[in-house]
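Late entry, evening session. Most of the bench is empty. Finally got around to the prediction I had been postponing all week. Sequence below, unchanged from the version circulated by S.P.
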Amino acid sequence: MAIPSIMGTEIEYGIMVKNDPDFDPISSCVLLVNAYREDPAGEILWDYDQENPLADARGFQVDGEKYTPNQQENIARNKTLINGARYYVDHAHPEYSSPEVTNPRDLVVHEKAGERVLEISRREATSLLPEGATMLVYKNNSDRKGNSYGSHENYLMDRRTSFKQIVEHLLPFFATRQVYCGAGKVGSENRSHPCDYQISQRADFFETEVALDTMVKRPIINTRDEPHADREKYRRLHVIVGDSNMSEYTIYLRNGVTALVLQMIEDGAIHKDLVLRDPVKAIKQVSHDPSCKLELALDNGKKMSAVQLQKEFLDLALSYTSGRENADWVPDILEKWQDALEALERDPMELSEKIDWVIKKAMIEGFMDRKGLDWQASQVSMLDLQYHDSRPDKGLYFMLERQGRALRIVSDEEITAAIHTPPEDTRAYFRGECLRRYPSQVFGVNWDSISFADGDEPIKRVMMAEPLKGSRVHVEELLDSSPSAEQLMKNLRA
């Protein structure tokens, strides 16, 4: 029986400072992250001791050194927020990691809350810049200079599930799911075949099937084995193959369908041979074919389009969920998945208010028709970038949303609340509430632990190895009876 769904996202944002000839991305990221002052003040460390990025899911440890910043750099680069999220500097990008959630709708709420956090930070950071300079932040995946940055999804899985089976089934799924979760892109990069417009921003940058790397020789399946939970029970599947999405509908479908497919893999419910002959080639072919008609070669000699292959997964999911008890979100995801695939089969442009790459394509084509431009025009590339602008008054996605041309899944009120409120049904609730209630007494935080400092007393670490424990139901009474972290420690020992 598949374990309950736990998921989250890590979004790396593009950053630049307009009218700054000395722009430095790293110092700008540090300024951006530290400009966020919405939460209670506290110098809290991110607990790198609990991380092991060199562990490989294939059963070995990769050679290399784990980088751990010193205390001053740690505090400058990291913020753990009272909504349970982590907001930090990752290499030369600001990154927002959502708190753990149990369903795709909450994932939309908390990923969108991350966009608001970035925008609050951006405005504050801009006020600290020299006159005339403006910080800009983009939720996209490429700087058009050969650099790609990620949108990573995380899903908790049963450790007993064979990693070989995960790879076998996910390679064809990931190569083709972009037809309903691509962000869309003008042109190509990374020495890929030239094209006017493609489905995915990331597809050109994948060069191998399975590996640990995330920045060079990017794999379709990432093998990082860092569960952030009880290692004997859980595996965290770290998905790096997706795009940064603006559309709520796309985010909802992306995570909901993927979580459902992973449950099917855990339960051994995928029994069709859907192995692609060359997944790395296929992921680029699918992206470069906005018609969604191109047939891909399978290992068994058959040929299928990306939509047809996804429909095979859908048929398996419909059989898998029939007659069984499913999570509340599953029927709606199945319905939307089926609707999207049927629309893609008829005419992808039917999804011009739902799926990012189609929304963007319709917007750009309308502009080109009005202005008499072609795909090579510089204004067209600028529209592509402005679609991902984080500023609500400037970003083209937000303009389309206000005009009713981008379908919503959640409300502005829910998103605003999630900036300061953790999800209630995972350990993120305990993490966020401890930060809110005891900010000066929290010493360090990680996804699966929180440490408290009380004067000269030894640091006390509370482990949170079970992601579904630490929920509001589990700990609200405990927290209400603990006016200080010291009392919390006593109550936990009682």
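Two things to note before I forget:
Residues 7-39+81-417 form a domain with the Creatine Kinase; Chain A, domain 2 fold (CATH 3.30.590).
The longest strand covers residues 234-242.
Will write this up properly tomorrow.
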